[in-house]
UniProtKB/TrEMBL annotation, chain A:
Transmembrane segments: none annotated. Pfam families: ThiS. This is Thiamine biosynthesis protein ThiS. It comes from the Bacteria.
UniProtKB/TrEMBL annotation, chain B:
The lineage of its organism: Bacteria, Pseudomonadati, Pseudomonadota, Alphaproteobacteria, Rhodobacterales. Transmembrane segments: none annotated. Pfam families: ThiG (PF05690). It comes from Roseobacter cerasinus. The active site is at residue 94. This is Thiazole synthase. 1-deoxy-D-xylulose 5-phosphate binds at residues 155, 182-183, 204-205.
Length: 65, 255
């Protein structure tokens, strides 16, 4: 299934968001996720199912002003 | 200074971007004496870079104020704030909704809209706003307890472009913490903001882009203290003409 991760197309096997994150290599605990522009809390990642064409954003702490 | 019920001693809030290295950033944080540092959220590169920065933040001992920099709509800013709350474990959010890419001027309409939603969700909103009094009122109505007017466009280092407007804000919102956010270039700008009665100053580029960021951080902190003391000391008013400071009474006639 093809999804868009941080604006880049990716092929993933996993249906659950939590599994897809592992599959994509996002292993750091310091990440936050949004699916199609909507925040997905950490404790909802397992129950969140992905669909083809979904836009996933994976963000982490960065320097800011 | 009470910010959402938290007692803060240092009047300098420091940004964490654009430093030559993480070590220099850590040194600048230390020498500034700041208790609040701003951070952001960006796309994770799956290399753990975010995790390393997060460790540095945790070791700083400072309170974290995440921002929504780069958001151009209320919806984007709201989602970013929600992500930041989970990631940084804080209800504090520096709310930025940008209206123009060239000036980075706040979109005050989107700002008020986002502030209303976030306050209802339990956030403590620090809105990056203009010096407009009506917008300030709307933000307070939305539930904000702090206002952060700009001094000049972000990163411009131009200092306070409209001191009169900031003075008017101080008079209009006597009991609301006012933090000048953006545009500070030199310690004299920061001192001026405090002399006008601002409660604090938030800056980043002026320290990060100095030749010696740690030393500039210290200079800013001292300028902020000086400006605050000066405001409390009730400065004299400027006069049009010279007035001798040395007494003329008893002056010898030698001509």
């Amino acid at each position: 299934m093809k999804i868009i991760v941080n604006s880049q197309p990716h092929e993933v096997q996993s249906r659950a968001l939590s599994d897809a994150l592992t599959e994509l290599g996002f292993l750091s605990p310091a990440i936050a996720t949004a699916l199609n522009g909507t925040f997905v809390p950490r404790n909802s990642r397992e129950s969140t199912q992905l669909a083809a064409g979904d836009r996933l954003e994976v963000l982490s702490p960065m320097q800011g002003g | 200074m009470l910010l959402y019920g938290v007692d803060i001693t240092s009047r300098l809030l420091l940004g964490t971007a654009q430093y030559p290295s993480p070590a220099v950033l850590a040194e600048a944080i230390r020498s500034s004496g700041t208790e609040i540092i701003t951070v952001s959220l960006r796309r994770e590169a799956a290399d753990g870079a975010g995790q390393a920065f997060w460790s540095l933040l945790q070791h700083s001992g400072c309170r974290i104020l995440p921002n929504t920099a780069g958001c151009h709509s209320a919806a984007e800013a709201i989602t970013t704030a929600q992500m930041a709350r989970e990631l940084f474990g804080t209800t504090w959010i520096k709310l930025e909704v940008i209206g123009h890419s060239d000036t980075l001027q706040p979109d005050v309409f989107g700002l008020v809209e986002a502030a209303r939603v976030l306050v209802a969700e339990g956030f403590d909103v620090f809105p990056y706003t203009t010096d407009d009094l009506v917008v300030g009122e709307k933000l307070l109505e939305a539930g904000c307890q702090v206002l952060m007017p700009w001094g000049a466009p972000i990163g411009s280092g131009q200092g306070l472009r409209n001191p009169d407007a900031l003075r008017a804000m101080r008079a209009h919102f006597p009991d609301t913490p006012l933090i000048v956010d953006a545009g500070i270039g030199r310690p004299s700008d920061a001192a001026q903001a405090m002399e006008l009665g601002m409660d604090a100053v938030l800056l980043n580029t002026a320290v990060a882009k100095a030749g010696d960021p740690a030393q500039m951080a210290q200079a800013m902190a001292q300028a902020i203290d000086a400006g605050r003391l000066a405001h409390a000391a009730d400065p004299m008013e400027p006069r049009d003409m010279a007035v001798p400071s040395t007494p003329v009474l008893g002056l010898a006639e030698l001509a």
